[in-house]
């Protein structure tokens, strides 16, 4: 049950990240062709997106490390 919830949460986070990227791209294109957002707001949005991706990658690396350590324990046990 927990891993199913974790997978669901991961997929939901990815969907939200894709939607945010789409919004950022649209706003950047609008700014280039006439502007709706101020440049400071676009830069802030990109920095927040970068932080979100960085923490997401860190979580993924911790998850992979836990799987690798489990495999090492199984190999050493035989």
Mean pLDDT: 77
SSE ordering: HH
Give the beta-strand count.
0
Fraction of helical residues: over 70%
Uncertain runs are: none
Major beta-sheet overview:
none
Strand content: under 5%
Taken together, the total number of domains comes to 1
How far do the termini sit from each other? 29 Å
What is the count of DSSP helices, taking H or I runs of 4+ residues?
2
Task: Describe the 3D structure.
This protein has 2 helices and no strands. The longest helix is centred in the last third of the chain and has 39 residues, at 39-77. It has one domain (2-77). It starts with a helix and ends with a helix. The radius of gyration is 19 Å and the shape is elongated. It is mostly helical and 78 residues long.
Quickly list its features.
single chain; 78 residues; mainly alpha; 90% helix
Reconstruct the topology from this structure.
Elements (H helix, E strand, L loop, with lengths): L1 H31 L6 H39 L1
Helix pairs in contact: 1-2
How would you sum up this structure in a few lines?
The chain has 78 residues and is an all-alpha fold. The chain has one domain (2-77). The longest helix has 39 residues, at 39-77.
């Amino acid at each position: 049950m927990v891993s199913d919830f974790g997978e669901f949460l991961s997929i939901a986070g990815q969907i939200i990240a894709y939607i945010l990227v789409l919004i950022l791209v649209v706003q950047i294109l609008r700014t280039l062709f006439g502007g709706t957002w101020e440049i400071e707001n676009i830069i802030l949005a990109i920095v927040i997106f970068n932080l979100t991706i960085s923490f997401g990658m860190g979580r993924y690396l911790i998850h992979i490390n836990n799987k690798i350590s489990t495999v090492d324990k199984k190999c050493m046990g035989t």
